[in-house]
Specification:
By secondary structure, this protein is of the alpha/beta class. 40% of the residues are buried.
């Protein structure tokens, strides 16, 4: 469903991605972990072409989306993106934040878009906050509006860029619970430090450092018996920091 092949990206003299490749199947959840500054967020932005790669290809459902002749705006309709800092329209209610893309991009009639937006807000537990503005919502609620907005577009995949890193600790669980409920129903590629989520929900964990994939595998292998010493060291430090068993 998604194929990422030999992605490279530099900013000036800084090499951020140095040949990243992996595949995803329909409905899979893959979690990308690794130290800060290792290119995880840049990789997501290369996948949906917010940051075009310098080299390499990305295919989505058999279509090469790195081909410059393609209509990237049309392709992006298949790729949801949930940002670290929410990126909601502050002058619109939660409901309008979700429905506006359906109207403007999918050209869905206003009332149908409203009904669909309400469905998605209900799905993330926010039907009672539909008419509130972002300033009236908690960080966790804002992020759930962002997830509802992504889901409303019926994407083939949703990219999550550290979706809980801007949240207070007590709000993180609400967002992760929503992500757990949609796992398997839509493909999710998640950059996160939430190891409990990675352990319990991911089909595969990808450990990146210095712009390359160091190791990847199912959670059972990565947490219990990683092959590479660097993977073991990183996961050990994370376990100590977050109290994981």
């Amino acid at each position: 469903m998604l194929e990422v092949k030999d992605i490279h990206k530099s900013f000036g003299n800084l090499n951020v991605l140095n040949g990243v490749s992996f595949n995803m199947d329909k409905g899979e959840t893959k979690v990308i972990i690794g130290p800060s500054g290792t290119g995880k967020s840049t990789l997501l932005r290369c996948i949906n072409q917010l940051t075009p790669p310098d080299k390499g290809q990305v295919w989505l459902e058999g279509e090469e989306i790195t081909d410059k002749s393609k209509d990237i705006n049309q392709i992006r309709q298949k790729i949801g993106f949930v940002f670290q800092e929410f990126n909601l329209f502050n002058h619109l209610t939660a409901l309008r934040n979700v429905s506006i893309g359906l109207e403007k991009i999918r050209k869905i009639d206003k009332e149908k878009a409203r009904c669909r937006a309400l469905e998605e807000l209900k799905r993330v537990g926010l039907e009672n906050q539909a008419n509130q503005y972002p300033a009236q919502l908690s960080g966790g609620q804002k992020q759930r509006v962002g997830i509802a907005r992504a889901l409303a577009m019926d994407p083939s995949i949703i990219l999550f860029d550290e979706p809980t890193s801007a949240l207070d600790p007590e709000l993180i669980g609400d967002v992760l619970d929503v992500m757990k409920t949609i796992a398997g129903k839509v493909a999710m590629l998640v950059v996160t430090h939430e190891m409990g989520f990675a352990r319990n929900v991911a089909n595969e964990i990808i450990f990146m450092e210095h712009g390359v994939v160091v190791e990847s595998g199912p959670p059972s292998l990565m947490f219990r018996n990683p092959k590479k010493p660097r993977t073991k060291e990183f996961l050990g430090k994370i376990a100590t920091l977050y109290g994981e068993e």
